[in-house]
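To: structure desk
From: M.T.
Subject: fold request, one chain
Message: Could you run this one when you get a chance? Sequence is below, nothing fancy, just the single chain.
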Amino acid sequence: MQNILITGGAGFIGSRLALALKARGCTITVLDNLSPQIHGADARNSALFKAIDGQVRFIEADVTDRNALTQALAGQHAVVHYAAETGTGQSMYQIDRYARVNVGGTSLLLDILANAPSDAPHGVRRLVVASSRSIYGEGKYRSAEHGVVYPGHRSANAMAGGDFDVHHPAGGSPLQLLATDEESLIHPSSVYGITKQVQEQLVMTVCPTIAVEAVALRYQNVYGPGQSLSNPYTGILSIFSNLIMSGKPINIFEDGRESRDFVYIDDVVQATVQALFNPAAAHGVFNVGSGVPVDVMTVARTLVQLLGTEVPISVSGNFRLGDIRHNYACLDKAARLLGFAPHFDFNTGLRLFCDWVRTQGPVQSDYEGSIIEMKKKGLLK
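Reply: Done. Structure tokens follow.
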């Protein structure tokens, strides 16, 4: 697989993957629309774009552009499909945009491959799609009375009263959090999660019918040097670190004990390379994470310590509709079939991230505007 197309390849993960694959001797084509939300107003001067400029064949186009996507696919042996709108909160009110890009772009990609003319068949042999932990919705739990359970949406009334934990609908003792494996129930709690579920299912359903090996990677919360500090929908590590560098207070939602699985960018690139080239990955679905949950209060306090700037940290009890309480990945399948094991624990990865953040200084962000928008839409309580 010498020639590889990366859709969305100028983004945070895609640009790092492009350089890693080029170092392996691959010829890389990147199709990316250079979204201002990710790259800023002067996209071609963004650090992410400049990292790949001159290193890859670059096509500036949207993934929903049939002509551009057809051109990009010509002569490719493999595709890594990253192009997508991201952000749980934003997806809940920009529904058409998320469905059009995430579902529509994936559908178009598969449509072009499925309908390649017989006199000019495509050469794509493997397609890796970036899925997401968001398709699981709330994580996996064990009830002493009911066994393994997958709780649904938490009650807005309960959360308004300060009860942020998940409960079995029939009651009983507190639930024990378990690692989410690939056989866990898929029940996304956001529009973003629904679109990622559909992306994955489209790829895993269509590819076997057109002689393409499909691989879906369910990424947890990816972080590291190079991620956008200005995009208010990119995750709490960048949001909190930018607030700290700006000397602004941090408002922690819920009670601060909600947790996520944070996985370092280099580990994600490693797993993706293994998914591209390992024969055992074919037609498989794999979690990619650190396998360790970290609560939001720990994130905030560690960032303050590492960045060396004291700012007020308050636990407000605010909450977003569509957010989950906990989720972290079981990595047994990825270890067994891909040989994947994360090399960076949270403290090591966060230290590297903070070393990079300090070189950036505070950047302009519309985080406050995103909060106002969610409140206006009734999504932030």
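Reply (cont.): The CA atoms of residues 123 and 131 lie 23 Å apart. Let me know if you need anything else for the meeting.
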